[in-house]
Amino acid sequence: MLSILLFAAAWVACLAQSNEFSSYSSAIGLGAGTPFSAKGEGSITGVKVWELPNSHITGIQLRHGANWGSVLGIVTTSELSMELFEGEAIVQVSGKFNPVDYIYQLTFRTNRGRSLIAGQPLQVSFNFYPKFARAELRMLSGRSNDKGITSLGAHWGIVNPRGNTGADQP
Fold it and tell me: Are 133 and 157 in contact (CB under 8 A)?
């Protein structure tokens, strides 16, 4: 019985420690449509964004390690992409959105100063960043409909809390 209690206490401590450096940037946008989330194992190593020319963001796709996740939203003909270098991490997501319909612009910035900018600089600005210094983008969540991304939130965390992922170095 004592060993079960010790195991349970250790398990709870591990869960608490893994979330200790996590934060969430609350979703912006209308929030209509089908909910989505893009979560994977390890650091994000690539990002793709689709847009309608001179209009809004229609789709997003993240790569964790060597594996591309599902497309969030829809694929259109205008695709922009960025592959991250070893030790590089996304440390800021910003852009513009219209509170009554779509996300119009997305900018992904890395700890090495590189950026991927997609969409049009129209409407209301937003800026997502982690609460903790070594944290990086781990997941995106939000909503989409048959024409594009209507809502977006960002989840931050430290990929390897015992080691340095490079997320806090230029």
Answer: no
